[in-house]
Amino acid sequence: MQYLKNFINNEEGQDLVEYALLLAFVAVAAVAVLTELASNTAIVFARVSGQLS
Question: Quick one: how far is CA 6 from the chain centroid?
Fold first, then answer.
């Protein structure tokens, strides 16, 4: 019975789960930002190319 109480109160793995969730959130945010940045960069290069032609 004491083993079960210790197991329930054990919080060692909690930090790892929190770091994994944070890392996943940062990865999703980075993909969203980089996708938007890529499309904006393509627009800028198209404008510059049009001006040079």
Answer: 34
Tokens of 35: 């996708």
What is the Cα–Cα distance from 25 to 37, expressed in whole angstroms?
Answer: 18
Examine residue 41 and state whether it is found in any structural domain, yes or no: yes
Q: How many domains does the chain have?
A: 1
Q: Residue 53 belongs to what domain range?
A: 17-53
Considering the domain boundaries, does residue 52 fall inside one? yes
pLDDT digits over 18-46, tens only? 899 999 999 999 999 999 999 999 999 99
What pLDDT does 5 receive?
79
